[in-house]
Amino acid sequence: MSPNALIPSHRKPRRSASSRALRAGVTGGFLTLAVTGATVPANAAEKPVSETQEMPTITAALATSAAKSADAAQQAAYNYERQALQDATEAKADEAAGKAKAAAEKKAKAEAEAKKAAEEARQEKEAAQARASRSETRSALSAVSDSSSSSSSHATGSAASLVSFLKSQLGKAYVLGSSGPSSYDCSGLTQAAFSQIGIDLPRVSQSQSTTGTQVGLGNLQVGDILYWGSAGSAYHVAVYVGNGNFIGAQNPSTGIVERPLSYDMPTGAVRVL
Questions:
Q1: Rounded to whole angstroms, how far apart are CA atoms 246 and 117?
Q2: Distances 216 to 87, 147, 150, 211 between C-alpha atoms, Å
Q3: Separation of alpha carbons 199 and 64, rounded Å
Q4: Is the pLDDT of residue 222 over 50?
Q5: pLDDT given for residue 139 in this prediction
Q6: What is the fold, at CATH topology level, of the domain defined by 155-271?
Q7: What's phi and psi for 181, nearest 5 deg?
Q8: In angstroms, rounded to a whole number, what is the distance separating the alpha carbons of residues 227 and 233?
């Protein structure tokens, strides 16, 4: 036996045919893999076989992803800012519209109140004018009544005969153009009445309104001729009989009646007695 038989060998054991050796390195952004011993026969010389595979650069991909994230964040920030500006603009517009509406409503209310006040003032003015007119009319009628009462108590002679005749005609018919004795028109009645006391009057009311002396309605006496319309163009006449009343042939509906002056206030009067 050899003296070296029991000494272990220091030679490395032969690698099996299926063993592989992996070597890796990064060069210029590419990953290089070196594979050796793939399906190599046992008696063949070991010969390294290199296989190279290109892969995307990790740094560039990360940079692209980060850039996209930054763009997305910037776009989102821009969208938020634009929405905020839009919301602020709409809020200001709503506020301005609200103020404008409130101002318009306030103005309309003020105008309505002013219009109402003006209308009330106008109505009050008209009412005051109407009261003043009624007061003047009552004063005139009172003066006429007082004057007529005084003159009526002294109505004797021809005035008394005139009133007596007129009262006897009450209730007779009104007929246009008639002078009695069963019917009369307004000027026909006054002409017939004054003929009873010997006074000749013109036939028509226009001429009768200018016969004698013009007198004021506040100074009437029994027997004064009242007329409606202008002197010289009167359209109706009657005779004042005292106590604020007159007698006349009014119209076909009423015939000859006695009425107060307030029933139909005359325009003027003439005196022939």
A1: 45
A2: 84, 11, 16, 15
A3: 135
A4: yes
A5: 62
A6: endopeptidase fold (from Nostoc punctiforme) (3.90.1720)
A7: -85, -10
A8: 10
